[in-house]
Amino acid sequence: MTYLRYSPDIETPEQDEQEVIDGIIQGMTQQSQTVTKREGHAVRASHAKSSGCVVGELVIPDDLPPELAQGLFAKAGTYPVAVRFAQGPGETLGDRVSTHRGMAIKVFGTSGEPLPGHQAGTQDFVLATGTTFPSGTAKGFLRDGSVIGKSAGLPELAKSAIASAARNVNRVLGAVGAPSALADFFGHPYSHPLADGYFSQVPLLWGDYVAKVGVVPSSIHQDQLRDWRLDPHEDEDGFRDATVAYFGEHDAVFDFRVQLWANAETQPIEDGSVEWPEDDSQYRTVATIRLPRQPAYSAERVRYFDEVMTFRPAHSLEAHRPLGSVMRARLQVYQALSDFRHRENGTTPANPHSIEEIPA
After folding, report:
1. Which neighbouring-strand residues pair with 122?
2. Domain for residue 2, yes or no?
3. Of 29, 221, 234, 297, which residue is least crowded by CB atoms under 10 Å?
4. Which residue, among 308, 350, 314, has the nearest Cα to 330 in the 3D structure?
5. Is 76 inside a domain boundary?
6. Domain residues for 88?
7. C-alpha torsion angle, residues 198, 199, 200, 206 (rounded to 10)
8. 3-class SS at 217?
9. Which residues are within 8 A (CB) of 223 and not within 5 positions of it... i.e. 6 or more apart?
């Protein structure tokens, strides 16, 4: 198969893109202000409620073909990682509000040229459930974000009802065809966080090529969680409790996969709402993430993950630079919202240089 190589002209920003990004920052900051006032504490503007904060390793094999052996993955090696699993909303809701999920990965000990403004030595991958970004573009998110932002003022029972309605819509759509990515964003099933797959949804540079990233469960114990469903009426922190219980007994293993860009017509760079057809290129495994049994929610580690440490697409090697409208927006939006959160809480943000800096 022939894969398309990167060139600068594959990105086509719209003329008003900076105005759009400024609008996203303003809208999401207002949302964060609303949540901060209600909770008395600033939290992440998305994926605020963590369900597991763990460490482990990323193992890259020595037999990758040339098109996959790119950037961080060009040579075999084992790298320490910190991984944060979290719920989607930008507020600490009870788990009856089950929306999309997040998995943020920080890889330590990397080498290579970093993006401007980013320290050398780490690489972040910020992932979510769902293979596409429902709003498509930064401009689409600004449009949709006005609705998401207004929801911050709704009572939790109303948000639970919205999530339930979205899940019901997807049950119907799934029975007759393809479920809706937007409905899943608002109403993800009550599945186990360690049974879900997580995706970049939008592309990034893959050395000489371009790719989307996916991380999927690959252990027998996680496979046994496929039919697990939370009863939200029994446990408001059920996803967290289930994650902690799992790591108390088992290791978690994930395949780290990439889908290389192969067809410019069917696999757009700028519109994240379009599924890249696997008929054009399939997800292929380039590494394994191993997360051993451990306390998954120790107080000091959670405080560090939630209050101090930052995960951003901008924490990247040049070889894995984020691409497309949504990613260009994230480079600025994550920084602005992190600045707001840490300023409100009186904390200093950190992008640690080594795994040893993370509390046990």
Report:
1. 108
2. no
3. 234
4. 314
5. yes
6. 8-357
7. 120
8. strand
9. 195, 217
User: How many domains does the structure of the chain reveal?
Assistant: 1
Report the Cα 283 to chain-centroid distance in Å: 17
Report the number of secondary-structure helices (H) and strands (E) in the chain. Answer: 8, 9
- Give me 216's structure tokens: 């999927």
Q: How many residues are given for the chain?
A: 360
What does the block give as tokens for 121?
């030595």
Single out the residue of 47, 43, 41, 38 nearest to residue 153, CA to CA: 38
Give dist(CA 167, CA 190) in Å, integer.
10
pLDDT digits (tens, 9 = 90+) for 69-106: 999 999 999 999 999 999 987 788 777 777 889 999 99
Query: Other C-beta atoms within 10 Å of 321: how many?
Result: 19
In the structure encoding, which two tokens stand for residue 280, read together?
Answer: 């054009």
Run of H or E including 12: none
First CA to last CA distance, the chain: 45
Rounded Cα distance, 104 and 84, in Å = 5
Instruction: Please indicate, yes or no, whether the overall pTM of this predicted structure exceeds 0.70.
Output: yes
3-state secondary structure of 180: coil
Query: Would 3 be classed as within a structural domain?
Result: no
Alpha helices by DSSP H, 55-101? none
Which CATH number belongs to the domain containing residue 50 in this structure?
2.40.180.10
List, for residues 216-228, the tens digit of each pLDDT value: 999 999 999 999 9
User: Amino acid identity, residue 99?
Assistant: T
Burial class (CB in 10 A: 0-12, 13-18, 19+), 63: exposed
Place of tokens 């017509």: 265
